């Protein structure tokens, strides 16, 4: 027995196909601009990175389209934007750390399937 979201993601991974796996939320919008980015994003898994290990997780900025609903939603949207643009970039470079934080991340499916899944399932 564990938390709902990590348990569901780790259970659902066995039903997926292909090499790239994108984790999205059920209320996330999939508009045309996001679909156009996907081809270039998946090429990052195939590109040679000059002796450095190939990436296993690629993070994308989440577009929060409910930011205009209320002042609280606007504040939370700005908080998300500042964390993604400042916090995660600092973690990525120079610290070389990348955790699965948001929904639109794309994973190397085989790498994560052989290492226990894409989410840490903690006991409740």
Tell how many strands the DSSP assignment holds: 3
Number of helices: 4
Class by helix and strand content? mainly alpha
Largest sheet: 3 strands, antiparallel
Number of domains: 1
What is the C-alpha radius of gyration, as a whole number of Å? Answer: 16 Å
Question: Could you tell me the mean pLDDT?
Answer: 81
Oligomer: single chain
Q: In order across it, which strands form the biggest sheet? A: 1-3-2
**End-to-end C-alpha gap:** 7 Å
Low-confidence stretches: none
Shape: globular
Organism: Opuntia streptacantha (Prickly pear cactus)
GO molecular function: 1,3-beta-D-glucan synthase activity
Domain Glycosyl transferase: 1-124
Keywords: Glycosyltransferase, Transferase
Please characterize this protein's 3D structure.
One of its GO terms (molecular function) is 1,3-beta-D-glucan synthase activity. It is built from four helices and three strands, in the order αβαβαβα. The protein has one domain. It is mainly alpha-helical. The longest helix has 22 residues. The mean pLDDT is 81. A three-stranded antiparallel sheet has the order 1-3-2.
Q: Could you outline the blueprint of secondary structure elements for this entry?
A:
Blueprint: H1 4-12, E1 20-22, H2 32-46, E2 57-58, H3 71-92, E3 106-108, H4 109-113
How is this structure best summarized?
41% of the residues lie in helices and 6% in strands. With 124 residues, it is mainly alpha-helical.
């Amino acid at each position: 027995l564990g938390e709902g979201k990590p348990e569901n993601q780790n259970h659902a991974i066995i039903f997926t196909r292909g090499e790239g796996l994108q984790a999205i939320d059920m209320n996330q919008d999939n508009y045309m601009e996001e679909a156009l980015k996907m081809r270039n994003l998946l090429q990052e898994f195939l590109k040679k990175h000059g002796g450095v290990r190939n990436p296993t997780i690629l993070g994308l900025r989440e577009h929060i389209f409910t930011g205009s609903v209320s002042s609280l939603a606007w504040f939370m949207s700005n908080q998300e934007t500042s964390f993604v643009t400042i916090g995660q970039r600092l973690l990525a470079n120079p610290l070389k750390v990348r955790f699965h934080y948001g929904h639109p991340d794309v994973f190397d499916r085989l790498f994560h399937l052989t290492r226990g899944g894409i989410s840490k399932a903690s006991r409740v």
